[in-house]
Design a protein that fits this description.
Elements: E1 9-15, H1 19-26, H2 31-41, E2 50-56, E3 67-73, H3 77-95, H4 100-105, E4 113-119, E5 134-136, E6 145-153, H5 156-165, H6 175-200, H7 206-215, H8 220-225, E7 231-239, E8 244-248, E9 257-260, E10 264-268, H9 271-278, E11 286-287, E12 292-296, E13 303-307, H10 318-324, H11 330-342, H12 344-350, E14 358-362, H13 368-391, H14 398-405, E15 410-411, E16 415-417, H15 428-435, E17 439-441, E18 452-457, H16 464-475, E19 481-486, H17 508-519, H18 523-536, H19 540-544, H20 557-568, E20 577-581, H21 584-590, H22 598-601, H23 607-625
Parallel strand pairs: 14-15, 14-18, 18-19, 19-20
Antiparallel strand pairs: 1-4, 1-10, 2-3, 2-4, 5-6, 6-7, 7-8, 8-12, 9-10, 9-11, 12-13, 16-17
Helix pairs in contact: 2-9, 5-6, 6-7, 11-13, 11-21, 17-20, 18-23
Length: 627
Amino acid sequence: MEQLKHECGVVLIRLRKPLEYYWEKYGTRRYGLNKLYLMMEKQHNRGQDGAGVACVKLKAPVGTEYLYRERALGSGAISEIFNTIHHSIDEAIADEEADDRFYAESAPYIGECYMGHLRYSTTGKSGLQYLQPALRRNNWRAKTLAMCGNFNLTTVKDIFKYITARGQHPRDTSDTRVLMELLGHRLDREVERRYADSKAKGLEGMDITEDIEDHIDALQPLRECGPMFDGGYVLCGMTGSGEMYAFRDPWGIRPAYYYYDDEIFVVASERPVIQTTLNLTFDKVHQLQRGQAIAIDRSGENVHLEQVLEPEENKACSFERIYFSRGSDIDIYHERKALGSYVVPEILKKVDYDLDNTVFSFIPNTAEVAYQGMLQGLEDYLDRRKQELLEMPENRSSERIHDILRKRIRSEKVAIKDIKMRTFITEGASRNELAAHVYDVTYGSIRRGEDNLVVIDDSIVRGTTLKESVIRILNRLGPRKMVIVSSAPQIRYPDWYGIAMSRMEEFVAFRAAISLHKERGMEDRISDLYERIKSLMGSEEVRQTNFVKEIYDPFSVEELNQQMIKLMRPAEVTCPIDIVFQSIEGLHKAIPDNPGDWYFTGDYPTPGGMRLVNQAFIDYYEEDYRR
């Protein structure tokens, strides 16, 4: 029901055969571009703010461009970028003799190395300058670096101080630019080290360049700089001389997958993207492991996997599986179904096991797989009821038998997405009024005043969409009782590793806890906690302990649920409303391989996350609570 800012998406492609090979086999010289387009389009869900691509031509003659980049803003960025690219190729073909040599040396964007990025802002900053890939150009191809990633680092300020103390002057303080300058500086040193080696061999002129590019170690900057990183990240790099790499954080917070054969090498943020684009089975695509980097050298012949950082405890992001990633991944599909099934026992309690007078549905479309799992869980419950027949005495009544056998789960599509709200509607009252019409209800799908209505969503974050839109919309159907179900647990804490959820007051669970403190005369606990955290900022204790958990400690999940209902209920809605959240136990049972749960539990995997959640509470207290 509530759109979250997705993590970014990345793509790396390296063609491992000569360019003419793809023309002869596939009938197109744009084979690499076409694969890049497909892999970006299949990850469109990960980037609505903008996109960018970069291409390196390994056979560009001296004095001509060898690294091309194109970026665009907005949800239509991918189409805009590729239209521009293909137009530039078509123009070049019209002016030149389009033979194999022309394509290899001169045609723009017809190269061996490609990088793609889809951006969803987690900082609120917008503009072309914030789109990736970012470039650090140099007349030495090996020193030229294109970089993109799916990352948020908690140590960017520390890295900024580190590089400026050594004489660098970054043009801005964004995490992308700071990382670019840090890694680019170390790449410069690696090239200079190779230059000295080449001179020692007695080489001169372009022979030195060729020798450097044949022997450069693109992972050396990561070995040197990786220990400075705290956060969730997949960092991708591509040099002007054709070295490429992808590097995953040691906690495995952000995902990355790869595949290579004798024709192509690819990296992407999601497994199904690679499967679909290259027509592969599940087992052919591999996940980059925690703290691991994968690199391919300039020749395209050597693929190298290296454990750059020792793996930490697995904290792969569970929200990736609940919400962000495409559900066409077979594992994610089964996990989302399991999430839906594990909330069934609590749902049955909320409707007093009255399945004859309860209708089940979902909203929005992203919750459909969890909905299927919920229906399966309900069917399993009915199957267990039917087992009672075997345990009944022989003189059991036919009426009782018929009552058990006739029960069915009543499922309907009670709401249909009608329009997409436009952001140019900025005035609050108008926006709220229009939001109430985002969905059209299916009138008659429930019996007015008789049926309970159970609606499942993948998550509940801020509660504003529920209050301003969904509850009002569903109320038009006249349910006897409304039950809102979240396949995810209560989201209580900010995220610092890639998702735009950074302010405490954004979370309806947090607002509910604060309001309970006020209602029960416990406001001194809030002030005392603020003073205690404030006094400890800068200490190691703040990097090890999430003190904000104390805000939730006095209250049960059910108490918070009821308070959330009070906060989210529109004034005109009078029917009873209940909320069911996934349990933490159910979360980990459904998604065993992605145990990162800091949004729900506050158990941040890194010291930087702990420090920032405590700082977020200070910011909330000073900026909002005391007003």
